[in-house]
Design a protein that fits this description.
Number of strands: 20
Radius of gyration: 21 Å
Number of domains: 2
Structural class: alpha+beta
Number of helices: 11
Shape: globular
CATH superfamily of the largest domain: FAD/NAD(P)-binding domain
CATH topology of the largest domain: FAD/NAD(P)-binding domain
Strand content: 15-25%
Helix content: 25-40%
Largest sheet: 7 strands, mixed
């Protein structure tokens, strides 16, 4: 651990410390608390939900394809959906296309309130506006983190740390190995935005193929700022609104602040260009107005840990099962590679794959566990497992495992996987 110019103030201790308040981190915190552990959840923004609460309006990964589509994520994710339903804040599942499984449209602002309430009721301590900058280690074990806030640097200690940061920040700070796509080969970033005052009835009559053709014609005429080939439009829960997942910023290292600064500016520039395109060329959008931009540009991929097992493209597309499976995935390989296109490869109808517990354990057993899009996986496998439904399921497993390790005074790698699976089933997880 490096030395600091001023002594660190110990802010809190807990059985389980969760870094990152996105879907994986919230699920981990709730699951650990459900096992009787004291839990501290640390988040960089002033709200929970990650990208799910700051721009996106589609929950993906809850279902495999099929007729009817089988549900493959349960437990804490169901509690989130139930609360959204009580608020009237989500729609019945719908399809985005033949290769994709069903998605659930919801109100992202309502999700913030739902997660606030669930975390409060579970007794999880919450620390917002805290950015984790270092890992605390003793005898090659991660025992906490250093977080930065307006009041300076503080130490947060725990028996077990869950890295749900998305970028594997704790893992990297601890000096553990990880993977990242070569320069220019990673997935594109997207600034999501919301439109209001849309004539939804007329807009629904315009197909994805129609919008694709209109985009191609606009680019051929020299209209700038429209790199995406797909429309990426979904109709919102709030009447007259549409969520656009259509901008595309590529060849960016999302862990480089300078590159990310450029990406934020470019993403917003593209959002404005896309709004102009819709108003000018697409029926139903003539009077559309910009109602909101994502708080941060959406990052699909950055770092992936080097874990005890590396999930592969073949594992995903063959719907492979594992004895230590702790979550299921059914979303297609959706790789946003290059300046324009999307490579979409679906699983067989009704098929789903397992995510092994070993994908959440960094190599070398540092007493740390991860959850979310930074799992141990190759690029294509991660391009399927990164969606919110699957991240909720991974987080649930990581939280239970962390609580078991803290209570047994051992590391997550050393717990009984069979007992973990039994506890997950008791929470409502779908493992078969």
């Amino acid at each position: 651990m490096p030395s600091y110019s001023a002594p660190l103030t110990e802010r809190a201790r807990a059985d389980v410390l969760v870094v990152g308040g996105g879907p994986a981190g919230v699920a981990a915190a709730l699951a650990a608390a459900a096992q009787g552990a004291s839990v501290l959840l640390v988040e960089r923004y002033g709200f929970l939900g990650g990208m799910g609460a700051q721009g996106l309006e589609s929950l993906c990964g809850f279902f495999a394809t099929g007729n009817p589509p089988p549900k493959i994520v349960g437990g804490i994710a169901d509690r989130v959906l139930e609360r959204l339903l009580e608020w009237g804040a989500y729609c019945r599942p719908s399809s985005l296309g033949p290769a994709a499984s069903l998605v659930i449209q919801y109100n992202p602002d309502a999700l913030k309130l739902v997660l606030d309430d669930l975390v409060h009721r579970a007794g999880v301590r919450l620390l917002l506006h805290a950015f984790v900058v270092d890992a605390l280690q003793e005898r090659d074990r991660v025992v906490g983190v250093v977080a930065a806030g307006k009041g300076g640097l503080v130490s947060l200690r725990a028996d077990v740390v869950v890295d749900a940061s998305g970028d594997a920040d704790v893992t990297v700070a601890a000096g553990l190995p990880y993977e990242a796509a070569p320069a220019g080969a990673g997935q594109a970033l997207t600034t999501t935005f919301r439109l209001a005052n849309v004539d939804v009835e007329r807009a629904r009559a315009v197909s994805r193929a129609d919008i694709r053709a209109l985009l191609q014609e606009a680019r051929a005429r020299g209209e700038e700022g429209l790199p995406a080939e797909e429309g990426g439009l979904t109709f919102g829960v709030v009447p007259g609104t549409v969520c656009a997942n259509a901008t595309r910023v590529h060849i960016v290292d999302p862990t480089d602040p300078s590159a990310l600064t450029w990406a934020e500016l470019e993403g917003r520039r593209q959002a404005l260009a896309y709004l102009r395109f819709l108003r000018k060329h697409v029926p139903g959008y003539e009077q559309a107005v910009l109602a909101g931009l994502g708080v941060q540009i959406g990052i699909r991929e950055s770092r992936r840990i080097a874990g005890a097992y590396r999930l592969t493209r073949e594992d995903v597309l063959s719907a492979r099962r594992f004895p230590d499976g702790i979550a299921r995935g059914g979303w297609p390989v959706e790789a946003h590679i290059g300046p324009t296109g999307i490579r979409l490869e679906g699983l067989a109808e009704g098929a789903a794959y397992d995510i092994p517990f070993r994908c959440l354990i960094p190599a070398g057993d540092p007493g740390l566990i991860v959850a979310g899009r930074c799992l141990s996986a190759d690029l294509d496998a991660q391009a399927s497992a990164r969606v919110m439904g699957t991240c909720l399921a991974m987080g649930q497993a990581a939280g239970v495992a962390a609580a078991m390790a803290a209570q047994g005074r051992t590391s997550p790698a050393a717990i009984s996987v069979e007992e973990l699976r039994d506890r997950l089933r008791a929470l409502g997880a779908i493992l078969e």
